[in-house]
Design a protein that fits this description.
Layout lengths: L21 H33 L1 H8 L1 H4 L10 H12 L4 E6 L8 E6 L7 E7 L6 E8 L6 H12 L7 H28 L15 H15 L1 H14 L2 H12 L22 H4 L12 H14 L6 E4 L8 E5 L10 E5 L4 E6 L6 H14 L4 H28 L19 H17 L1 H25 L1
Antiparallel strand pairs: 1-2, 2-3, 3-4, 5-6, 6-7, 7-8
Helix pairs in contact: 1-5, 1-6, 1-13, 2-5, 4-11, 6-8, 7-13, 8-12, 14-15
């Protein structure tokens, strides 16, 4: 009789552990792990700089209160007189590009000039006391938001790490992956809370626990509290990006959700709007000739009869011969006022107007989303909420690395079990490939890193097999 040799239990080949969430849960867990591990540093930098940017409007008030405000007086100089005072101060040769009248009593008028020593999208802002004509300050302002030096420095740190256009790829990478990581984590959270015996630890941090379990509880609970805010920041951040942002703009135009444009060319051509100019700057326009200070006051009076009814406005002279003057509402807090009017300086006739009330819904949502992202839509409440979300996102990244360090799988640096996709049915594999391809095409800085993740995963699998031989 031939004996059947049965290998001892410890010698039998081990099958990959299957996730209790099935193949899809196992796949999401691995995606969440690798994406967080490799993209985490970019998200952490974006969150840290974003936390600073959230309070930047308040910092402007703190650092530049003298320039932004002046004692309120019963009477004030005409706008033309204020502009003349600023031009006298700026000196001969200064080219006037825009004027922002004092929006409220106690505020200053901002008269903006171009200069050869200024960078792209920068202008020289001279602050004038409307009551006395006193010059309260002379600072460099940036973009349509008119942000002052401290806020501009923080903005450029958040947007491109002060590396110029190449640096914008970091923020696009962070914004593109943030939503994917968060959504994968949310699905995993739902599965966990359905199975967990102590559900409270997935909603509120388990401060009395220790080690990995305590870290996991903090990671899960903080993640669910900042979920919606993180998705909002990701979606609005993508609209600023180089590659994915172009796809978003093309889609909006295709479905009729583009922002209406103001016709400034007197020959009938239109200038494309830039909703993000407040954050990444809008080039200071250079008039072809000297702008008459009295004309600023005249076009503002006409605009107020048409559709401009807020104190926060910007008046711009023609950027070139054959173009119109423009008066634009720049009030970005809610309720938003973004009406604009173009006026022919020769005839003083209105040649074009846009009204925020007539914007397509998608254009309004884009405007509100951008202003929400910048912390200006709801004032200090908006800024405080953004600060909380940014700190929460940064905390999630740090906790994720701490969990990896302590070894949730009992071994430092270990990844979740492989083999999720191999266990999937054919339709599951096709669905994953199709969805990944679509997202990678729409968000290029998701597509290329995703390929890198797959390559890394395959290489790690090969290494494991070689060591097992």
């Amino acid at each position: 009789m031939t004996a059947t040799l049965v290998p001892p239990p410890q010698a039998r080949p081990r099958r990959p552990a299957r996730s209790r969430g099935g193949w899809f849960g196992s796949l999401l867990l691995r995606l969440h792990f690798y994406a967080g591990l490799l993209v985490g540093p970019f998200i952490l930098v974006a969150a840290t700089s974003g936390a600073l940017y959230a309070i930047a409007p308040t910092l402007d008030e703190l650092f530049y209160g003298h320039e932004l405000h002046a004692p309120a007086t019963a009477t004030s100089l005409s706008l033309a007189e204020q502009i003349i005072a600023a031009e006298t101060y700026a000196g001969e040769g200064a080219v006037l590009t825009a004027v922002r009248p004092a929006p409220e009593p106690g505020d200053t008028t901002r008269v903006m000039f171009a200069g050869d020593d200024l960078g792209a999208s920068e202008s020289r802002a001279v602050f004038v006391d409307p009551g006395t004509g006193e010059i309260r300050g002379d600072l460099t302002a940036y973009g349509t938001s008119g942000s002052l030096p401290v806020r501009t420095w923080i903005s450029n740190l958040h947007r491109n790490l002060h590396l110029g256009e190449p640096g914008r790829l970091y923020s696009e990478l962070a914004a593109s992956w943030l939503a994917i990581i968060v959504l994968a984590g949310a699905v995993l959270w739902v599965h966990r809370i359905r199975k967990a015996r102590v559900k409270r630890e997935l909603v509120m941090p388990a401060v009395r626990r220790g080690g990995y379990r305590r870290l996991f509880s903090w990671h899960a609970s903080v993640g669910i509290w900042v979920l919606l805010g993180a998705l909002m920041l990701s979606a609005t951040g993508i609209t600023w990006s180089t590659y994915a942002g172009a796809n978003v703009s093309a889609l909006r135009a295709a479905i009729g959700g583009a922002t209406p444009v103001l016709q400034t060319d007197l020959s009938g051509a239109e200038a494309a709007p830039d909703e993000h100019a407040a954050h990444h700057g809008g080039a200071a326009r250079m008039p072809t000739g000297e702008a008459n200070p009295a004309t600023f006051e005249a076009v503002l009076a006409i605009a107020r009869r048409i559709n401009v009814d807020t104190g926060e406005v910007e008046i711009k002279p023609p950027a070139a011969s054959g173009q119109a003057w423009t008066v634009t509402e720049i009030k970005r807090s809610f309720p938003t006022q973004a009406d604009a009017v173009a006026i022919d300086g020769a005839t003083m006739q209105v040649v074009s107007r846009v009204d925020f009330a007539q914007f397509p819904l998608l254009a309004k949502l884009a405007r509100w989303g951008i202003d929400l992202h910048m912390g200006v839509l709801f004032g200090w409440v908006n800024q405080l909420a953004l600060l909380f979300i940014a700190v929460g996102i940064g905390t999630l990244v740090v906790l994720g690395y701490a969990m990896w360090w302590t070894g949730g799988n009992k071994r430092w640096g270990s990844a979740p079990a492989r083999g999720g996709l191999r266990a999937a049915p054919w339709w599951g594999v096709l669905s994953v490939v199709a969805i990944a391809g679509l997202i990678g095409w729409w968000l290029p800085l998701v597509g290329y890193p995703l390929i890198a993740f797959v390559v890394i995963d395959v290489l790690l699998g090969l290494r494991t097999r070689i060591r097992a031989c």
